UniProtKB/TrEMBL annotation:
Required cofactor names: pyridoxal 5'-phosphate
Record keywords, A-Z: Lyase, Pyridoxal phosphate
Pfam families: Aminotran_4 (PF01063)
Gene3D superfamilies: 3.30.470.10, D-amino Acid Aminotransferase, subunit A, domain 2
UniProt protein name: 4-amino-4-deoxychorismate lyase
Classification via PANTHER family: AMINO-ACID AMINOTRANSFERASE (PTHR42743), P-LOOP CONTAINING NUCLEOSIDE TRIPHOSPHATE HYDROLASE PROTEIN (PTHR42743:SF13)
GO MF entries: lyase activity
PROSITE patterns named among the record's database cross-references: AA_TRANSFER_CLASS_4
One Gene Ontology term from the biological process aspect of the record: carboxylic acid biosynthetic process
Similarity-based family: Belongs to the class-IV pyridoxal-phosphate-dependent aminotransferase family.
Length: 272
């Protein structure tokens, strides 16, 4: 299965996904007017489903979607089981686009959904060198924590990363606080304490981020969320990123090297 070559769609007011994508010209393409979730389907379930449902519900509220007929995660799970069974593992991208066209002002406020299914591809466990971008920043907005269809800051950051021949880019807020990595949240460990930028730093509310924070707190480990300067990151013993497929450890930033030995208890959370 190549990248997203299996696509299903759910039309406005429909109650079922069907094969194909018959509505390529939509408000998602024209205006980035929508949301998406990237999810792992394994053992017949969406992993961390409660976190995905919570995040999409928040995004729909922030973007003022009419939620009538929008799928629930449980419905998507049933649909995927009916097509793939319980032994197939997939990476699923779920798009929710405001229906209709119009210009900036929508003509209607229902939804058009697509599911894009592909094999799971895991990222590298270690990224040899990262840098802190001085040109791309993550600004504040009511939807900064949501996964909207307008991901231009992350596109430009990763173009810059490629041009600089780096393995990871770290992004800051316009006033210089650490925010996130190019396609993942960022954590670091200094002695026995873990740190990560808070949502006040305009980062995406990553599902993996929440799962890890909850795990650390439940197990009595010290995890601090806050506004941090790049210099705080350089004090770390270990730096790693998290997204829905797992963790990656960063070896070098600005000439400083860090341990890339995986943390077993964290690796178990994200094991596929």
């Amino acid at each position: 299965m190549s990248d997203f070559n299996t696509v299903f769609e759910k039309l406005p007011l429909s109650n079922a996904f069907i094969p194909g994508a018959t509505n390529p010209l939509n408000r998602g393409l024209y205006f980035g007017d929508g949301l998406f979730e990237t999810m792992i389907f394994m053992n017949g379930e969406i992993r961390f489903s409660a976190g995905h449902q919570q995040r999409i519900n928040h995004g729909l509220e922030v973007l003022k979607f009419n939620t009538k007929s929008i799928s629930k995660i449980t419905e998507i799970e049933r649909f995927l089981r009916s097509h793939y069974g319980i032994h197939t593992s997939l990476r699923i991208r779920w798009n929710i686009v405001r229906s209709g066209m119009g210009k900036y002002t929508p003509q209607e406020n229902l939804s058009y959904e697509t599911l894009h299914c592909q094999d799971i591809t895991l990222g590298p466990k270690a990224k040899m060198e990262a840098y802190i971008s001085e040109t791309v920043t993550i600004g504040p907005s009511p939807w900064a924590s949501c996964k909207t269809l307008n991901a231009l800051p992350y596109v430009m950051a990763n173009i810059e990363r490629q041009e600089m021949e780096m393995d990871e880019v770290i992004l800051t807020t316009p006033d210089g606080h650490l925010s996130e990595a190019g396609s993942a949240n960022i954590f670091w460990q200094e002695k026995d304490t873990f740190y990560t930028p808070s949502l006040k730093a305009n980062c995406i509310a990553g599902v993996g981020r929440k799962v890890l924070i909850d795990f650390l707190r439940i197990n009595g480990l010290d995890i601090k969320e806050g506004l941090y300067a790049p210099q705080d990151l350089l004090k770390a013993d270990k730096i790693f990123t998290t997204n829905i497929t797992g963790t990656s450890y960063i070896k070098k930033i600005m000439g400083r090297e860090f341990s890339i030995t995986p943390i077993p208890m964290i690796e178990r959370i994200f094991k596929i």
